[in-house]
Amino acid sequence: LLNCDRATMWLRGDFHSADVPGEVSLYSYVQPFPALEGAPLVRLELPMREGSILGTCVLHERVLNISDAHDDARFDTSFDKSTGYRTRSMLSVPIHNKKTGNTLGALQCLNKEDDEGAVAGVVFADEDETLIKAFAAVLAVALEQMEHREHASSAVEMVVRSAAKASGSAQRGQ
Hints:
Blueprint: E1 4-14, E2 24-30, E3 42-47, H1 53-59, E4 64-66, H2 78-83, E5 90-97, E6 102-112, H3 126-173
Antiparallel strand pairs: 1-2, 1-6, 2-3, 4-5, 5-6
């Protein structure tokens, strides 16, 4: 769609750290690099803080188009080290539902490719930003609908269990 090497969806979660319990984070699951058949996905997680690329993107609801991530002080090289990947260009956009006001996470595209698949010196264009923002808007609605369905499903299960217990109690009391 955007002619990039990788794209990642980061979602809000609770940071799993003894250092800062309950802190809001962004997490994702990615394939190790190079991809190995049957290899488990690697969970990446980072606290959603000022000073990080994704934190800035989500907290300020800003699109960030970075030509070389390693030249940006906000870039955390530990992710490249843990996955074996080399990030160059990066396009990050918040997943924000304008109707509800909720920011659910971010989409991040890595390493824009030219027509031959080369990534060195290739950057994301304004058209790429427009396209990914539209995709993120649709994704925000889909994610919120999925969350509402899960809550509705849980509520239905709770009502059914309560009704079953009440029915069982009523039958035993007769």
